[in-house]
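User: Quick sanity check before I run a bigger batch. Here is a single chain. Can you write out its predicted 3D structure?
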Amino acid sequence: MEIQKNDTKINYKIINDSNEILKKLELGISIPIWSEFYKYILHDLNFFQAKSMIFEIDGDPVGHILIYSDMDNILYFGYVGVKDHNKKIIKYLIDELIKYAREHNFNLIRGPINIPAVIYGYGFMKEGSLDDLFAAKPVNPPIYQNLFRKSGFYVKFQEYTWEGPFLRVNPYRLTGFDFSEYEYFTPDSWDKLMKLKSIFLEINAKNFPDSSKITPNIGELFDNYADFIITYGGFYMFYFVRHIPTDKIIGCGCNLPNPFSKDAKGRYNSIVGYSYAVEPEHRKKSLAILMYGANSMDAWSNKMRFGSVVTGEAHDKGTTLMEKMVGIKLKRTHLILEAVLD
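Assistant: Done. Predicted structure follows.
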C-alpha cells in the first residue's frame, strides 16, 4: 500500500514474524531494546500474535507501529515512532491505523501500550515531564498525541509518576500507628510466588476500577512479568499483607526494577512502585504506611535508593502523605488514548 504526498511516496507493509518484528521495535520506542530483554518481548509478541506496520520511503524504514488484540473488539497499538517525527508521516500512520481497524471490524483503538509494559511502559508522554531513561516510562515529543487527538482520539486514562529518594521507613517504630493485627510478608521462592499468584490477581482485579485496567490479559502475562521483576529485582518486589485474626490475605502489591540505572558499584539502584491494593474493609488502617515502610527496608537492603510511584490521580491521600513523608514529587504524566470507530 502506498500514498503520494508532495512527491514523496510512502509505502507500508505488515510483518507477522516475531523475530522480524523484534528488529524493528527500536524505531518506535525511546527505551533501548537490549538482547537480554528479547525473551520477555518475544513472549508477549507471540502471545498476542502481534503485527508490525512498517512505513517506508524508497525502501528505507521511516515509521513503525505495533498492533495486536486480545480476541476482543479492541485494537491495541504501541511502539509508535517516526523518523525525525515527521508530521506528514505520523498523520499517514494514524490514517492507516484507523483504516486497518475498520477493515478488521474493531470497535475501539487504544494505546500506546508497549509490550511487555513492565519494561517499555505505555502512554504518550505529556509536555513538561522528565525525559531521562527509566523503566516503563516512554519518551516522545507532543506532536504524536496532538495529531492522534486531531484524528478523533481522546484521553482514556492519565498515569502520573512521582519520583524522589526512596527513603527507608521502619513502620513498626512510627508513633500513632497500630499494625498488630497485620502481617507483612514476601515470598522467597518461585513456587511460593506461584501459590500466591491467584490471590494477587484477584485482589488487584477486585480493587482497581475498570478504567485503570490498561494492559490486556494481565493474568496470562503474570509469569513473564514476574520473571523480569525477579531477575532484575528480587522476590521482595512482590509483597502481601495478612489479617492475623482471620488468617486472610487482604492486601498486596508489586514493584518494578529499573534496569537502566546502576550505582557506582554496578548495582541496580532504583525501583518503580507499580501496583498496590487493599480489600475495602481494611482500608483506612494506614496499611499504605505499613506496606511502603516494610518494603522500603527490603529495598534498602538491596541497595535501592531512588523510587518512582505511579498513580491514576494527580493527587490523592496516599501520594499527598508520601509527598510529605519522603519528598516525592510529580515528575511525569503519560496519556493513554482511545478512539471509537463508527
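The radius of gyration is 21 Å.

User: Great, the batch can go ahead then.
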